[in-house]
Design a protein that fits this description.
The protein is an alpha/beta fold. The protein is 51% helix and 13% strand. The protein has 12 helices and 8 strands. It has helices at 3-10, 12-22, 30-42, 47-63, 69-84, 110-123, 140-151, 164-177, 195-211, 230-242, 260-268, 289-297, and strands at residues 98-103, 128-132, 154-156, 182-186, 218-224, 246-250, 272-276, 284-286. It has an 8-stranded mixed β-sheet, sandwiched between helices. The longest helix has 17 residues, at 47-63. It is elongated and about 65 Å long. The protein starts with a helix and ends with a helix.
Amino acid sequence: MGLLTRLKEGLSKTRSQFNAIVGGNHVFDESFYEVLEDALVSADIGIDISLDIIGRLKEEIREHNVSSLSEAYTHLKQILIDGLQVKKDPDEFPPKPWVILVVGVNGVGKTTTIGKMAHECRSNGQKVMFGAVDTFRAGAIEQLKIWAERAGADFISQQEGADPASVAYDALEAAKARDVDVLFLDTAGRLHNKVNLMNELEKIVRVLKRNTPHTPNEVLLVVDATTGQNAIKQAEVFNDILGITGLIITKLDGTAKGGIAVALTKKFGIPIRKIGVGEGLSDLQDFDPQTYVEAMFGDI
């Protein structure tokens, strides 16, 4: 099954909701734009960003003398695609290992996401290691170990309750010694409004940088699409403290809130690295703006 097909299946609720609101014949009057605003907000793009998108669409319709709904829809989708095209790649790749710190609130699927990303790395012939930096959640170390075994990855941990920064340091040293290509550090889920837990993340990064200044190479924030606009607040806090380099959006299958990808990209200018549209190993996919918009909005 191709990515577009999986995305269309996963985002069917978003698409159905949007088309139910916008579908039909319209003239381009204020009533049309009000209906469109309702549809965009319902998809969880947010009011301010929806109004910005509509403002740009109005300009496109005037500038290109658009007369049909299908043509207006084409312009709308291109506006969304353009907004999602954010790329931030390093100027040069430092020596191995490539260190990826994975963060997020409780229950967004960080450990599962790491397992799926590691599976992809291993398929590309890379040597992978997991660092079990989540030392507090009961069963977290064992869960990550199981994923490491499934993915064929090396595994570093300490006892439950150990200092997370110490585990991260040990994992980095071990990854260097074993010539690992990619080191994934799985952190404990934490609410973004818990200052002491956020300070702990800051300490992990500080210890990594003291060891190897360019690490972590990536700080990936995993967000659950079903939380909608709450994902904006999560991204804001994590980004302020850590400097997020990429986003992973999980649980897009079956949600009517697929527009959160548009909202996150527009607000923070941080690229979406991966999206999850199912439980299978192949259901975590590279993010492609055009494919995403086509799947989310389809055709009227």
